Amino acid sequence: MQFIISLFSVVFLCAMVTSCGDSHSPLNVGDSCSPTDDCPGKCQLGGGFPGGICTLECDLSSECPEGWSCVTKSSGICLKNCDSTASCQSEFGAEWVCDDEDLQDPGVGDGWVCIGQ
Prior knowledge:
single chain, 117 residues, alpha+beta, two-stranded antiparallel ribbon, two-stranded antiparallel sheet, 2 helices, 22% helix
């Protein structure tokens, strides 16, 4: 009987330890982040990215998620396309605006994306 109680205790302890492991789930592109977060690409921080944003490095907009464009900032990162500051603020917060930025894509010029002010 003592063996069964000991075995049960070990199994219960193992279950508790594994369930208390890292409960941090990976973030998605567009989520706010800090340097220690698990972004799919990188956590872009700084004045143009209030609260940080999970984004991807890119050379062309085709490398970005649908509805995102590759801009020249930080040697090429994906930012969300927009048509109004209100849409940026509702998704990312009051410090974000819809602004005209240079795109990485050759011959394309500028595009409207959400970026911090």
